[in-house]
Design goal:
Blueprint: H1 13-16, E1 30-31, H2 44-48, H3 51-54, H4 66-76, E2 83-87, H5 88-100, E3 104-108, H6 113-120, E4 125-129, H7 138-148, E5 152-156, H8 168-177, E6 181-185, E7 207-212, E8 223-227, H9 230-239, H10 247-258, H11 260-283, E9 288-289, E10 296-300, H12 304-313, E11 316-317, E12 319-320, E13 328-332, H13 336-350
Parallel strand pairs: 1-11, 3-4, 3-5, 5-6, 6-7
Antiparallel strand pairs: 2-8, 7-8, 9-10, 10-13, 12-13
Helix pairs in contact: 4-10, 5-6, 5-9, 7-8, 11-13, 12-13
Bound molecules: pyridoxal-5'-phosphate (PLP).
Length: 352
């Protein structure tokens, strides 16, 4: 008879060594910790008035998300054969590592899921520290590409949690040097002043672009997508689970793209607020914010834990990044009212 104590020994060592991803639900008045949009851009009746969806809940959703592909292809000026949707871009990261394998190279600090998923799949994650300006350290990146021949390189640009874009010429050098796939994760591209890498897809066949609707007001839907050469799309599509995008998400995402003007206006409101918040943070003594191309700002303080707890006491939740970048915290850009509450609360804690 098997004992309870033996159960964990059945688990593959790479999985046993992992820690489950904790998205702690801390109750708060102002939630600025997860890079979500403060705005839900669609009135609920827009989605739930769609009788076709609600009357066919007994049927599986469109396995290919055809309508969604068509609408996105048009908006992005690509063909629908160059697109693949995932249950969030997280799922696509899973599929990419399943399809191409490792080693999986990424600069650090960055989005944690590249490393977590690589390990879950038994592939080797290789993190290379960013340089002092949070840009790619080219000597080290190119050395690893030569020595370890990574099958996949993940570049989050703009990068989470630092907020900056990597220099385009450095990204290009990585793409040119790599014998594997280079994924430019553009989760925050809508907030950036740079055009992103979509226009370069034609010229670089090993390039894959990753985007998501999560940061622009649709986090609950879990809709991410990748754009790449049809050959790559077809290979990744083989490991995709059927019906990975549920019917309500497909319908709501389609409404989202139809209402692009509303969504874009909200994005502009957020980037305007980002500039205001940056100036306000820079004006505070003991606070050093870093310029951001995303919907959050990284800043340094003397004692992040004290600030974190002090803010939480006033109902404001942000992210303590001290363990990732010494003295750093990350605040998501909220609505104007939320940002003002945050700044006032921060000032209070600093003056204590
Ligand atoms: C939030 C985030 C994602 C995940 O997005 P989902 O589509 O919600 O899974 C991917 N990459 C980066 C860099 C992110 O910050």
């Amino acid at each position: 008879m098997m004992k309870k104590g033996d159960l964990s020994k059945l688990v593959r060592p790479n999985v046993r060594a992992l820690k489950a991803y904790e998205a702690k639900e801390i109750p708060c008045r102002v939630k600025l910790d997860a890079n979500e949009s403060p705005y839900s851009p669609l009135p609920p009746e827009k989605i739930f008035s769609n009788k076709d969806v609600l009357c066919s809940l007994n049927r599986y959703p469109d396995p290919e998300a055809k309508a969604l592909k068509k609408a996105f292809a048009k908006a992005l000026k690509v063909t629908d054969k160059d697109l693949l949707f995932g249950n969030g871009s997280d799922e696509l990261i899973y599929y990419l590592i399943t399809t191409f394998g490792g080693p999986v190279l990424f600069p650090t600090p960055t989005f944690v899921m590249y490393g977590v998923i690589a390990q879950a799949l038994g592939e080797k994650p290789i993190g290379v520290p960013l340089d002092a300006t949070f840009d790619l350290d080219m000597d080290r990146m190119l050395a690893i590409i030569k020595k370890d021949k990574p099958k996949l390189v993940f570049l989050s640009s703009p990068n989470n949690p630092t907020g900056n874009c990597y220099s385009a010429d450095r990204i290009l050098k990585v793409i040119e040097a790599s014998k594997g796939i280079v994924v430019v994760d553009e989760a925050y591209q809508p907030f950036s002043s740079s055009r992103g890498f979509l226009p370069l897809l034609k010229d670089y066949k090993n390039l894959i672009i990753l985007r998501t609707m999560s940061k622009i007001g649709f986090a609950a839907l879990r809709v991410g997508y990748m754009i790449a050469d049809e050959i790559l799309i077809n290979e990744v599509n083989k490991v995709r689970l059927p019906y990975n995008l549920n019917a309500l998400s497909q319908t709501a995402a389609l409404e989202g793209i139809k209402n692009k003007k509303v969504v874009d206006a909200r994005i502009r409101a957020i980037t305007d607020e980002r500039e205001r918040l940056f100036d306000e943070l820079a004006a505070l003594e003991g606070v050093t914010p870093f310029p951001s191309e995303a919907n959050f700002i990284l800043f340094k303080v003397t004692d992040p834990e004290k600030i974190f707890q002090g803010l939480l006491k006033q109902g404001v939740l942000i992210k303590n990044m001290d363990r990732v970048i010494g003295h750093a915290m990350r605040v998501t850009i909220g609505s104007r009212a939320e940002n003002t509450i945050f700044i006032d609360a921060l000032e209070k804690v600093l003056n204590k």
